[in-house]
Amino acid sequence: MTITGIIAEYNPFHRGHAYHLSRAREITGADFVIVAMSGNYVQRGVPAMFDKYTRAEAALRGGADLVLELPLCAACGSAEYFSDGAVDLFMQTGIVTDLCFGSECGDLEPLAEAAALLADEPEEYRSLLRQHLRTGISFPLARATSLQEALPSVSSDMLSSPNNLLGIEYLKALKRRKSSIRPHTIAREGGGYHELTMEKGYYASAGAIRRELIHSKGTFTEMIQAQLPSPGIYHSYEGKTPLTEDAFSLLLLQRLRSIQGTSLNSFFDVPEELSNRIWNRLDEFTSFSDFAELLKSRNLTRTAVNRALLHILLDIRQYRRADHLRVLGLQKEAKVLLNLLSTHGRLPLLTGLSGSGLPEHTFYPDRLYESVRSLVHGIPYQNEHRRKMLIV
Amino acid sequence: MTITGIIAEYNPFHRGHAYHLSRAREITGADFVIVAMSGNYVQRGVPAMFDKYTRAEAALRGGADLVLELPLCAACGSAEYFSDGAVDLFMQTGIVTDLCFGSECGDLEPLAEAAALLADEPEEYRSLLRQHLRTGISFPLARATSLQEALPSVSSDMLSSPNNLLGIEYLKALKRRKSSIRPHTIAREGGGYHELTMEKGYYASAGAIRRELIHSKGTFTEMIQAQLPSPGIYHSYEGKTPLTEDAFSLLLLQRLRSIQGTSLNSFFDVPEELSNRIWNRLDEFTSFSDFAELLKSRNLTRTAVNRALLHILLDIRQYRRADHLRVLGLQKEAKVLLNLLSTHGRLPLLTGLSGSGLPEHTFYPDRLYESVRSLVHGIPYQNEHRRKMLIV
Known about the structure:
- Chain A is of the alpha/beta class.
- Among the domains of chain A are: 3-104 and 188-216 and 321-391, Rossmann fold (3-Layer(aba) Sandwich), CATH 3.40.50; 245-313, no CATH class.
- Chain A is 44% helix and 11% strand.
- The first copy, chain A, has helices at residues 15-28, 52-61, 72-75, 79-93, 108-120, 123-134, 139-150, 162-176, 206-215, 222-225, 249-259, 272-281, 288-295, 302-313, 336-344, 364-377; strands at residues 3-8, 32-37, 41-42, 46-47, 66-69, 98-103, 182-187, 325-330, 349-350, 390-391.
- In chain A, strands 1, 2, 5, 6, 7, 8, 9 and 10 form an eight-stranded mixed beta sheet that branches.
- The radius of gyration of chain A is 21 Å and the shape is globular.
- The A-B interface holds A 249-251, 253-254, 257-258, 282-287, 364, 367-368, 371-372, 374-375, 378, 380-381, 383 and B 249-251, 253-254, 257-258, 282-287, 364, 367-368, 371-372, 374-375, 378, 380-381, 383.
């Protein structure tokens, strides 16, 4: 049996995602497609625009058979942690045989070459890296330059495209974990990750759609609807302000004030340099996004700052891999996957949290998200404990 | 030397307050007038509309010689705790000789009679109280009824006016503490506490002014300016949204969610009945004020609910009297009061917090207030640690 894994955020789910799902099924000959999807917080270090149940539902209506939740540390970690956590999750399922990811290049060979080099870090590469770091350039740039020098066959374009880089991280994680999961890649169609334009008949990026949604205050304009696999998917969210990090501004400020003066070393992935800058500039805090913009530097991207602030807000102290398989939703026709997961899975299978025995602090991030969501949208609070997986 | 104490909130300071200050000075022949004023939270169980420094400044410009901060537990406690905390603070100064409060009746005699009865609680009164409570009426109503039956000379009108009732509590506290401070009362002019109308040439209540300010979104309209002792007093606050409890909604919800399921018994003045109702109805939370409205009952006024929610939000676990004398501000000409307070005061005198050695959690309520204020007004955060008393 072929069970293909896809790693995604679907923030929000769009036509390009539906295309990727159907192509992945096709090229791997999959019996089932399982998606490992970020929960309520995403890799840019911000809350997801729509909550995880809404996004899981869209994924199921858009072609996925089952949606697993990525563990929080992976979902809002850097590319390396994101990939490690996602690959680990698929390995723990015991049933995923193939992994299919989108990339700008659409060609596995050069990505695998780069991944092999990064997984092993031979002395030749490490020496190049040291040399470049000594010149004072940032780590990502030094790494890209060293990689390219060590692998002349790989184009520099390839190493600067975000989905290629993420693909390399997936391949590296598979290789390091000696996983038997077979990788595949599909060329992304349409707008690149950083392109924010939206034209009809063109695959826009999730970033472009998010920008439009913020602009339209949550109204699914004709232009946005044209990017959805089926226009009905988000109807119930029509007109609700999409959540952004700035709905969490007061909570973040209060959190920072309450731990002010302590070292931020104990939080996951908060560099010392950033810790100092946070305390020095705290009185200039006006919002989550403005503060992140204020804190970013040559060495630290806005995304890295966002992630650090999110780790502090959510009290994430260390990287943890999954300790359970959390099913957010499932296609009716794919119920057999639950049996397979409970038989072959190497972690407890959870289809809801009631009676899960998970410690209380596990729910803190979701409680925070739901508190904000219920107040911003003026809708009833949904208790995570009582949520069950969706069946579509 | 005569030093007269006045207990106040000044939320905001208005013409009636200036009149009271000058009359108090006159009738007591005071050399100095010291005000004990609520800090950033007030007796209705909500944040003050303007922060304590702004209100202290107005009081000093309006005729006070020195402003002391009421301890938090008193400032946002019920009338009995409010009075006990304020009277205690004046006793601890070692220099306050007289206390002057406003009342609807303007006559000390009947108030003192009622206070004597409540301070001693003779069996006759207690038996009446028991009888009335057995009929199922609320405690405040049973108390007023029993008082009136025990003191036929006192009119029922008198016992239903809020400032008379507060005055009785002051007198009761003085009596119970066997204080040598001499009480005086001045008849309030103009709008009663519960009257919300505002007419030119008439003394409006602080409640009426607050309502107008919320309506005008912080603009000091001509009608509001007519109620200020001098129009310039609040100019720097012009156009800034007055703070209400709803700016704290998300923080309260997050606080409740984070302690959900635990008993609220450990918080100060949170009745068991309310504790249960909070957990039963938490999913209906839409804002601080709506939630308080939802929770109020025949036995529990909206104000009592507000106070309980505030105690939970600010982590107030038990009633505490003052453990220091905190000077918020001072008239230049009254500097001698600082010497007197440091010589005769029975508690450490603080004119700022830097180096005060006060434990960290002491600052939590002010930090919360300032965080909200800086975000709502888009103005820089003012660090309580670095604030010094105002000299006007």
